[in-house]
Amino acid sequence: MMDHLTEGRITRFKNLISRRQFDLTVVLENVHDRHNIGAVMRTCDAVGIPEIYVIFSEVHLQEEGIVAKTSSSGSKKWVKINYFENLEECLTEVKRKYKNIWATHLGEDSKDLYELNLTEPTALLFGNEHDGVSAEALSHCTGNFIIPQFGMVQSLNISVACAVSLFETLRQRTAKGKYDSEYDESIPQQKEMFDHFVQRQLNNSRDDSH
Asked: In a designed cystine with 183, which of 18, 85, 101, 114 is the match (CB 3.0 to 4.6 A)?
């Protein structure tokens, strides 16, 4: 199977996988604009997040097929979308895999983004463009955080807020050496991802040859 791939491509896959942060994810709740979802996915890929969670509990979003449309983006090749229509089911799954769920939400008990320990297993939850994170979602979270701002308008586009938050996460994790590992096929998550990348590359090569 490996004979069909160049050594450079294999090395690139292994380097990418070795830097994947399997204990970090993003959760999007009822985000309306597929372009925002696509932008979030590109940022997730940039900081090494292997999967995200998308909740569409609003029926009209399910009917519009936004996830399917977003799936055509290039980032979908490298970032897996876990799609849920039930919020509680999604966040139960997220809590099973990640120690903390931090939601972007302005409240009396909100922490500053830069006070969070983002080197722990973490999920960052972002609400939709109009209403933010729902009360139901907040009830499942470890806590809330805000991004410090000093302008007249105290809000950021969701994809921008996500990018700011994730690059602070990258900064903290880089300082902890969490991007310094080498590929290790004895780690099931890494081996599974490598096999997936290789198989997809081979499938694409066969399609191109027809």
From this structure: 18
Average pLDDT of 35-55?
Answer: 95
Residue whose C-alpha is closest to residue 172's, from 5, 55, 23: 23
| pLDDT tier for residue 68 given thresholds of 50, 70 and 90 | low
d(CA 127, CA 143): 14
Q: Which positions ≥6 away from 115 have C-beta within 8 Å?
A: 145
**Does the 20-180 domain belong in CATH 3.20.20.60?**
no
Q: How far is CA 142 from CA 99, 154, 206, in A?
A: 9, 23, 46
Residue 123 φ then ψ, to 5°? -120, 130
Query: Which pair of tokens denotes residue 114?
Result: 């830069």
Distance of CA 147 to the CA centre of its chain: 18
Please state at what angle helix 34-47 crosses helix 158-175, rounded to 10 degrees: 10
pLDDT tier at 34, thresholds 50, 70, 90: confident
For residue 16, with 0-12 CB atoms within 10 Å meaning exposed, 13-18 middle and 19 or more buried, which class applies? middle
Paired with 25 in beta bridges are: 123
Q: Are strands 100-104 and 122-126 parallel, antiparallel or unpaired?
A: parallel
* Tokens at 189, concatenated: 């998550």
